[in-house]
Specification:
The structure holds 2 protein chains of 2 kinds. In chain A, 13% of the residues lie in helices and 30% in strands. In chain A, strand 12 (185-188) and strand 13 (193-196) form a beta hairpin. Chain A is extended and about 100 Å long. Chain A has 3 domains: 20-69, no CATH class; 73-177, Leucine-rich repeat, LRR (right-handed beta-alpha superhelix) (Alpha-Beta Horseshoe); 198-406, no CATH class. Chain A is an alpha/beta fold. Chain B is mostly helical. Chain B is globular. Classes of the chains: A alpha/beta, B mainly alpha.
């Protein structure tokens, strides 16, 4: 240890006695330290006080300025690209319920109108086309109900509209070269990929099919479930995009045989209101269908319209990405066809729970492949659901070489 | 060569006799009897546990109640911070004056301050009862700007603004009232437990049971939740008993001994609880997202801890050599301001804090790792948390040795360098092995374990450095000026708020907002965690520089303590000669 360090670590218990006269207790200066200043007025400090006050005022003003900058958001933020613009971020003014994305836009207010819900207009600049929508451009928006996508938009990130809670439907311009909508759901133009099924699509469907109010889970009629909570994925679809159906309230899902990829979080945490106070998982069953005729109507009428229907993930499915079906505790049955080559981590996480000592949800995974063949499947960590077992968690068992349920 | 077993037995025998002899009265040159060591274990243990339980409850984005039930936008918390900022600056000046005078001010000043606080409360209540935004043109730029703020509306902004007035007035008035009543009896650090504990228990219950999170409109939900949490925050339950132990003895060695053994041992209560609590929560159907966690688990645990705390609190004493309250130095505004500016060591701490702000706005790495990478809950969660927490315990028992062997300067530089390296390894692991959960997770947990191991001695050193800074300030100004020291934060404010702009914007860009489940997306999680960590790593290495200027050694500290003791001795003698009732003093 150096001499200097030894000085720094002088024994804390070292006996020190200072002989301080009574009249010097407030002024006595310890060698090597500054002198005390106690019970003495700060005379001749006027200049220092002024400087101090000014510095403080400047510092406080700058702090407030930078802090305000932190939260100040432009309604629309764009990034210029080589050929046009990308919508980077949309921050709602609080009252924009319909959003058109086609050209660089701004909000113009009518100062004469005092009604905050209608005193503005979103004005687009036709000379500045928006060609792409970036990831998380609309993130957790709770106000926008309709998104209109214009003909200029050529690229939409799969996470562009992440958890837009109020979003009921998309409307895509018929001239758009890359995207289209069917009954308010966003697809790639060739109908091979589901891009986004809006979180609040059920509201749109209720209005369409004449339901006045939302029906809570236990009270939902069979017809309500068919009309509002059943989604028939068109037969052309090969990919459920990343987060495509996440957070919707679908209860029954029909997937086409031909679907190859369920991307990350594609069927993540589907849920619906249990009562006026809380939500509960919604997805009950996943069916697959094989139809000789193309199926384009996403509204469920009858199973016979879909051809051969079976309770399983579709034959031909190859990739189940991470978290694809996680947090669906009401899902009752799971059958993994032999075609699956990759299962991402946490693909079926939290699809089971224990209630009154009884396992509910996916309590067994049925795999078509035998154990040897299944080993060839790329398996991510913790892809199987786990349930409480003693004080730890236990994986749900896989039944290899299982027969599909009738 | 002596027999090691016999030597050990001899030491044990000596220790037993020492404890038995000085169970009720301390040894010569010491101040704390061993009986009080036992009480420290129980009092700090229960208080620390209670305060840790309260970390599950708060008006911030990562609180499970906010995350899973209130679902408020991330940026809303920053907006509320800004709305509260102007009043915060003004009220801080009054607050500092009151606190650093321990609540004892000239009658005239006290009346004026009470009046200000009363008016603040009235204004606050009026904003909650009436909608002040209606006084403005609804199409004006001001109102449209407020309506556009994330998660708020003009109405909600005014109510939030008013809530802060109500909160400031209420807390301020209570601060004077209770300090005057309780500080002379219970001391400056633990008095607040006595006036806050009952209302705090009630508020903990209400926060879980009031269904404010069911309000459908987000702006209304924000201001009502803000009001509820402001009321909750009026009553504190901090780790007061541990703070008290920082001043448990004027003897530096004894102080470190108390903080290294009984205080560390007391944390075992929390360690045990942190195994059981998540296991209990994990048994709920929705785990961390289950509202019953806030309705039953948290209130029951907290109330039990609070009851034990109050039972043992009276047995711990703070022993700062100080004049009686009646003869203490009166701190005027400029005394406070210039007093703290003279303290060179506060300046060093300020520069360190300033550099540390590079990580402001970061999300808690360990929580994200456990919840979103590993999806841990229940006992496995508890065990991994306990394992990592435990890593710090053995080195902490050796704190007295390390603090003797190495200078504070060396310890703190070592600390910052290990932090920097550890975080760098975590960032690299997450970036390159992010999708391989087991590999990435294992690397992170091992690094966290080593970081925890190397953290506890510097933490003890840091606490002692702060106590020494307080002692030095008392020598300089006649009071500890712990509140006025806040003015350093005003000077560094522009830089910290500028730096604080960076990480939240990055987080928003990578998808982080009111829905934390975006962290289940691998790419989002990687960006949200790694980029801020890299910014923070730079800070850790830079933070070594200010510590090079730390030269406040034990010799200087001992001399300062002698001065403080002499002042206490002389002033108490003077008080007795003048026939003044002397209270709250301590001779040392």
């Amino acid at each position: 240890m150096s001499k200097k360090n030894k000085e720094n670590t002088a024994p804390a218990t070292e006996e020190i006695h200072l002989d301080i006269p009574e009249d010097e207790i407030w002024t006595y200066q310890v060698p090597g330290l500054a002198a005390p200043h106690i019970n003495k007025p700060y005379k001749n400090f006027t200049l220092k006080k002024i400087i101090f006050t000014l510095v403080i005022l400047v510092a406080v003003s700058l702090s407030m300025y930078f802090s305000v900058r932190t939260v100040q958001r432009e309604t629309f933020e764009y990034k210029q690209t080589e050929t046009g613009y990308q919508l980077e971020k949309f921050s709602n003014t609080g009252y924009i319920t319909e959003l058109e994305i086609n050209s660089v836009s701004e909000v113009v207010y009518d100062r004469e109108n005092e009604d905050v819900t209608s005193n503005f207009e979103v004005v687009g600049d036709e000379t500045k086309p928006v060609e792409s929508i970036g990831p998380y451009a609309l993130n957790c928006d709770g106000t926008v109900k309709v998104i209109k996508i214009g003909a200029n938009v050529k690229e939409i990130d799969s996470k562009s509209f992440y958890s837009c809670w109020a979003l009921e439907r998309f409307e895509v311009d018929g001239n758009n070269p890359n995207y289209c909508d069917v009954d308010g759901v966003l697809y790639s133009k060739d109908m091979k990929t589901v891009i986004n099924y809006p979180c609040n699509h059920d509201q749109y469907l209720r209005e369409k099919y004449g339901y006045e109010a939302e029906q809570f889970r236990a009270d939902a009629t069979e017809q309500y479930i068919k009309d509002i909570q059943t989604y028939v994925v068109p037969s052309t679809v090969e990919t459920l995009g990343e987060t495509a159906l996440a957070y919707t309230n679908i209860r029954v899902l029909y997937l086409p045989e031909g679907l190859k990829v369920c991307d990350k979080l594609s069927v993540f945490k589907l849920h619906e209101p249990k009562d006026a106070y809380g939500n509960t998982p919604s997805l009950d069953n996943i069916y697959s269908y094989k139809s000789a005729e193309p199926v384009t109507d996403t509204h469920f009428t009858d199973e016979s319209a879909l051809g051969e229907v079976y309770l399983s993930l579709p034959e031909g499915l190859e990739i189940i990405e991470s978290d694809a079906f996680s947090y669906n505790q009401e899902l009752q049955y799971l059958y993994i066809p032999a075609s699956v080559k990759h299962i991402g981590h946490h693909a079926f996480w939290d699809c089971i729970y224990k209630q009154d000592g009884e396992l509910k949800g996916v309590s067994v995974i049925n795999a078509a492949a035998d154990e040897e063949a299944f080993k060839a499947v790329e398996q991510g960590d913790q892809w199987r659901p786990q349930y409480d077992y003693l004080l730890f968690k236990k994986n749900v068992e896989v039944t290899y070489g299982a027969q599909r349920a009738e | 060569m002596s027999n090691p077993v016999a030597g050990l037995a001899g030491k044990a025998k000596w220790l037993f006799t020492e404890i038995k002899t000085h169970w009720n009265t301390p040894a010569e040159g010491k101040y704390v009897p061993y009986k009080e060591y036992k009480d420290v274990v129980l009092a700090v243990g229960s208080n620390y546990t209670g305060s840790k339980v309260l970390e599950y409850v708060g008006f911030w984005a990562t609180c499970y109640l906010i995350m899973y039930h209130y679902k408020l936008p991330y940026l809303t918390f920053s907006v509320i911070g800004i709305l509260n900022m102007p009043l915060g600056y003004i009220s801080a000046l009054i607050w500092w004056l009151v606190c650093d005078n321990l609540g004892f001010m000239p009658k005239k000043t006290e009346k004026k301050i009470y009046l200000v606080y009363g008016l603040m409360m009235l204004f606050g209540i009026s904003t909650i009862l009436f909608d002040y935004s209606l006084l403005f043109n609804q199409a004006s730029p001001f109102i449209t700007y407020l309506n556009g703020l994330e998660g708020l509306s003009a109405t909600a902004c005014f109510k939030t603004f008013g809530t802060h007035f109500l909160y400031t007035g209420w807390v301020g008035a209570r601060n004077i009232f209770w300090r005057k009543k309780l500080v002379p009896k219970y001391g400056r650090y633990k008095y607040s437990l006595y006036c806050d504990v009952v209302p705090k228990c009630i508020m903990v219950i209400l926060v879980g049971w009031l269904p404010v999170y069911n309000i459908p409109d987000v702006a209304t939900r924000v201001w009502v939740a803000n009001l509820m949490f402001a009321t909750y925050n009026v009553f504190g339950f901090a780790n007061n008993m541990e703070t008290c132990t920082k001043s448990i003895s004027p003897n530096l060695q004894e102080r470190i001994l108390v903080r290294s053994y009984p205080v560390k041992l007391s944390h075992i209560f929390h360690s045990v609880l942190s195994i059981f609590l998540p296991a209990i929560i994990g048994a709920l159907r929705h785990g961390w997202a289950d509202i019953n966690m806030y309705r039953f688990v948290i209130p029951i645990t907290f109330i039990a801890s609070a009851a034990f705390t109050m039972y043992f609190a009276g047995r711990i004493q703070e022993r700062i050599p100080q004049p009686p309250v009646e003869k203490k130095a009166q701190i005027k505004f400029w005394d406070g301001m210039f007093g703290v500016l003279k303290n060179k060591y506060l300046l060093i701490n300020t520069v360190v804090g300033l550099i540390d702000s590079l990580g402001n706005g970061m999300l808690p790495l360990a929580t994200i790792l456990y919840l979103f990478t590993f999806r841990l809950e229940g006992l496995p969660y508890s065990l991994i948390v306990a394992l990592i927490s435990f890593a710090g315990t053995p080195p902490d028992f050796l704190s007295p040795y390390f603090l003797k062997r190495f200078s504070y300067k060396q310890i703190m530089i070592f600390y910052q360098v290990t932090r920097g390296l550890g975080n760098l390894i975590i960032a690299l692991a997450m970036w390159f092995t992010g999708e391989n959960l087991m590999l990435c997770g294992t690397i992170c947990v091992v690094v966290l374990f080593f970081m925890e191991m190397t953290k506890t001695v510097p933490t003890t050193a840091g606490h002692d450095m702060n106590v020494r800074i307080g002692d030095y300030q008392m020598y300089l100004s006649g009071e500890r000026l712990e509140s006025f020291a806040g003015v350093f934060g005003w000077f560094t404010g522009p830089i910290t708020s500028f730096v604080g702009l960076i990480i939240p914007l990055l987080l928003l860009k990578y998808g982080y907002n009111s829905n934390m489940e975006v962290l289940f997306i691998d790419s989002a999680r990687r960006n949200i965690i790694v980029i801020p960590i890299l910014v923070d790593v730079i800070g850790f290495f830079l933070m070594t520089i200010p510590y090079l200027f730390w030269d406040y050694d034990s010799k200087k500290q001992n001399m300062v303590m002698e001065v403080l003791k002499r002042r206490a001795e002389v002033t108490e003698k003077q008080a007795k000669e003048e026939g003044i009732a002397a209270s709250g003093g301590y001779l040392g």
